[in-house]
Amino acid sequence: SESYRRNNTPQGGFRTPEFGVEKGYGGEDGGVEMRDIDLASTPKREFQDTGASANSKASTKPKLNLRRPYAKTNEIGWRQSHWLRKRCIIASDSVKWEVGVLLLIIGNCITLAMASPLDDPESSKAKTLSGIEMFFSIAFTIELVAKIIAMGYYTDENAYMRDNWNILDFIIVMGGWLSEVSGGGGGLTAMRAMRVLRPLRTIKGIPELKRIIEGMIASIPQLSTVFGLCFGCY
């Protein structure tokens, strides 16, 4: 046909029809305008898999913004992604958690100041204070267990028992339970005095006070000669 002869040139080239160029559908014979197209120079269409990128973004989980390092696994093999350990890490690392524990310590100090060894154990005051003391013991134990689950017990360098202040907390909490077990008599009665150590836990909750105490302890060896001179003079 006439259109076939037009599309195939004697040089063997092929003319590709292109619609909507300059003259549009106008032409001498009413057909479309033909133009040679260099296919090699035609820009390729870029393909972007938006679905895959969306899925990858959705599958990416945000990392926890923690203030201190935690062990990858604790002694019982729980990783940081374990549902219970993850919650313990978030709670232990939270400032609100530390403020709540500090308020509990202050409240416990108030109840300890209200107690007297001269009170009748059968009085309503003594029973009320004993119930409050049990509440504080359970609360401090929950805090202790949560921190051990989050930080690990001893294996990792950042474990719970690698910090001297945590060791003090552990001794105070265990001493409080020993005082509860001792009851009103027996050889463990003296362990009730361990409760008076609980105000020392406020040192850890206040960083400024903690640095002062650490500085005083670190200066004791350097002051030994001064103490010896004072004892020698007096």
Secondary-structure blueprint:
Blueprint: H1 2-7, H2 50-59, H3 83-92, H4 95-114, H5 124-151, H6 164-182, H7 201-205, H8 207-219, H9 224-233
Number of helices: 9
Helix content: 40-55%
Biggest beta sheet attributes? none
Distance between the termini: 130 Å
| Average of per-residue pLDDT values | 74
Order of helices and strands: HHHHHHHHH
Spans with pLDDT under 50 lasting ≥5 residues? 16-37, 44-60
Rg: 39 Å
User: What does the overall shape look like?
Assistant: flat
Output the structural class.
mainly alpha
Give the strand tally: 0
Percent of sequence in beta strands: under 5%
Description:
This protein is mostly helical. It contains nine helices and no strands. The protein has helices at 2-7, 50-59, 83-92, 95-114, 124-151, 164-182, 201-205, 207-219, 224-233. Helix 3 packs across helix 5. It is flat. The relative contact order is 0.07.
Task: Label this structure with key terms.
single chain, 234 residues, mainly alpha, 0% strand, flat
Outline of the structure:
The chain is mostly helical and 234 residues long.
